[in-house]
Task: inverse folding
């Protein structure tokens, strides 16, 4: 019997979509650019270069913290985090240690420990016999959102990361795209036998898609039951379809943090914080609730329509072109994304009421018991026959997909 409970915590890194980098004027958008074309003495870590914090990046980090219910630290500061790796030209990364911008938030039932700001590193590319480094990414603003070890299942992790991604995209501060690396997830997982937090944990790196997050966690739950509980850093290997050891505990880093001497501490007044809060706008869950109340939509429809801010705003723009329910149906089922497409659809749409449609289908079913029996016995063609009959009676006014859905519902 399985008596182990997974205890999972997450660190999520998000690259901010600011125009310039965190501490210099180089462009922050590095995706698909010629290597090392977007660098300067600051982000290359050359001696004497002075970092100047990007105000927008700091404000966006606070905005995300507020959206996650965090408290903004009255005073926060940047620190140097030291380690040696070829992707880090200065030998340290400017990050935040004991005074992060935001602390103590919550998303659903998951407690958020901190939201802090740091700079991204360069990117290593390994080829045969040689490793190349591209510093275009070096110094791009990177937010880190750290949870408490509150997850007890992979499903909870899934719900959380998708909700976090949705909120970040709503705020418009990052594309939060795992494939492009603008959102990166590092789970820590241990197994508990008594529900308490164990005294070890395994950190997982290189998990660069939602699917791999699931697979890596599933793999670890099985592996830790089999091999026991040892503190390690492991990476997800797509080739091996397994996690592999990267570092044991005794090699754990000592980062020798100390305050960044070139950047003064930051202080925030209540006024400044409420100014940033006022820029947050309506978040997905609030929007969904409002859509249900204001437009009388079902939970499902409102969830679909508020999936992205763009889609929700488009719905509100066109909701008055028909009944909200009908417009919602068209947007959800027909994948209509522009007003022109919608108008075309409304003009060509058969003028037939839901009642009329239902009555016609019921009549057709009554007249064709043999076809129903055939369909129940697995003959898909019988369904097509019934749809055809209905379309003929409606003189082409219905749509085949809708009719077939009604028939399925009625005769299952
Ligand atoms: Zn630069």
Result:
């Amino acid at each position: 019997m399985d008596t182990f409970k997974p205890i999972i915590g997450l660190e999520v890194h998000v690259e901010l979509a600011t125009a310039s980098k965190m501490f210099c004027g180089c462009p922050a958008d590095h995706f698909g650019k010629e290597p090392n074309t977007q660098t300067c003495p600051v982000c290359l870590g050359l001696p004497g270069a002075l970092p100047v914090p990007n105000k927008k990046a700091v404000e966006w980090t606070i905005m995300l913290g507020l959206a996650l219910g965090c408290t903004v630290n009255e005073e926060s500061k940047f620190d140097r985090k030291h380690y040696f790796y070829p992707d880090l030209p200065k030998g340290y990364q400017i990050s935040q240690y004991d005074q992060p911008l935001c602390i103590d938030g919550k998303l659903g039932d998951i407690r958020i420990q901190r939201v802090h700001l740091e700079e991204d590193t360069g990117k290593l590319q390994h080829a045969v016999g040689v490793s190349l480094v591209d510093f275009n990414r070096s110094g791009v603003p990177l937010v880190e959102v750290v949870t408490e070890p509150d997850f007890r299942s992979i499903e909870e992790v899934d719900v959380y990361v998708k909700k976090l991604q949705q909120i970040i995209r709503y705020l418009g501060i990052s594309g939060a795209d795992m494939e492009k690396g603008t959102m990166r997830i590092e789970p820590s997982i241990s197994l508990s036998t008594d529900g308490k937090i164990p005294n070890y944990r395994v950190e997982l790196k290189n998990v660069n898609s939602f699917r791999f997050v699931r697979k890596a966690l599933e793999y670890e739950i099985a592996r830790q039951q089999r091999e026991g509980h040892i503190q390690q850093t492991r990476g997800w290997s797509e080739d091996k379809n397994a996690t592999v050891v990267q570092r044991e505990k005794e090699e754990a880093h000592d980062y020798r943090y100390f305050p960044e001497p070139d950047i003064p501490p930051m202080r925030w007044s209540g006024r400044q914080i409420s100014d940033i809060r006022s820029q947050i706008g309506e978040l997905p869950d609030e929007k969904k609730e409002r859509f249900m109340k204001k437009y009388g939509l079902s939970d499902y429809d409102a969830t679909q329509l508020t999936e992205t801010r763009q889609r929700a705003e488009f719905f509100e723009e066109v909701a008055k072109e028909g009944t909200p329910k009908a417009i919602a149906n068209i947007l959800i089922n027909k994948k209509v994304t522009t007003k022109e497409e919608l108008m075309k659809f409304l003009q060509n749409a058969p003028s037939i009421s839901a009642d009329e449609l239902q009555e016609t289908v019921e009549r057709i079913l009554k007249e064709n018991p043999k076809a129903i029996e055939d369909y129940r016995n697995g003959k898909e063609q019988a369904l097509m026959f019934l749809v055809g009959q209905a379309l003929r009676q409606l003189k082409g006014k219905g749509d085949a997909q809708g009719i077939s859905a009604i028939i399925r519902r009625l005769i299952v």
Notes: The domain at 354-411 is CATH 1.10.10.410 (Arc Repressor Mutant, subunit A).
